[in-house]
Design goal:
heterodimer; B: 90 residues; alpha+beta; GMP Synthetase, Chain A, domain 3; 3 helices
Chain lengths: 110, 90
């Protein structure tokens, strides 16, 4: 895996407050798990940068190495890996995700 | 029951001695979707309750499970939907 890809991922994660690596786009998710995370972020009214890993095979594999996490979607907040679909859904359902975003200083519309 | 289901179950039992463990092959529901293989065994749901997860964050719990199942991910396991928890205190 090239260092350039890892550096590009690191740059994306560290220069944006909320970054979602997903399959497809927020308008047209191409995976049910990615779709769940998009819906949760939309309900919370979080602004985020979506990165479609299906457009770049290097990123698709590179993001798994970057976080040492074997699946997609992956959500990052303020440079920190928060989790995949299961974790984001659990945190949302318990109300923890809203608090987490607020603690991190992420603006919520709702 | 598919062979990957059996292997996942065995590996999780050995690693975590769970008090509750359900492993289901959900591949059929994802047939034709990117990552799904025609032969199946790509998408699984796991519900696991174990004392071994006590004190770990959600990310740490999933990381230890991913580690135990590393060989499965490397041989075609594509998606694992996990519900992992510590057994409720009585």
């Amino acid at each position: 895996m090239s260092d350039a890809v890892q550096a590009a991922i690191d740059e994306a994660v560290k220069t944006n407050d909320v970054v979602l690596f997903m399959k497809g786009t927020p308008t047209f998710p191409q995976c049910g798990f990615s779709s769940v995370v998009v819906q949760i972020l939309d309900v919370l009214g979080v602004e985020y940068v979506a990165n479609n890993v299906l457009e770049d095979q290097a990123v698709r594999e590179g993001i798994k190495l970057y976080s040492d996490w074997p699946t997609i979607p992956q959500l990052y907040v303020k440079g920190e890996f928060v989790g995949g679909c299961d974790i984001i859904r659990e945190m949302y359902e318990s109300g923890e995700l809203r608090d987490f975003m607020a603690d991190k200083g992420v603006d919520l519309a709702a | 029951m598919t062979s990957r289901t059996v292997r996942i179950r065995k590996k999780l039992e050995e690693a975590f001695t769970p008090v509750r463990l359900e492993v289901t092959d959900d591949s059929a529901r994802h047939a034709g979707h990117a990552g799904a293989a025609p032969e199946g065994e790509t998408h699984f749901n796991v519900t696991i309750e174990s004392e071994a997860f006590d004190g770990l964050s959600r990310v740490q719990i999933q990381r230890t499970i991913h580690m135990v199942l590393r060989d499965e991910f490397e041989t075609g396991l594509h998606a694992l939907s996990l519900k992992a928890s510590v057994p409720p205190r009585q």
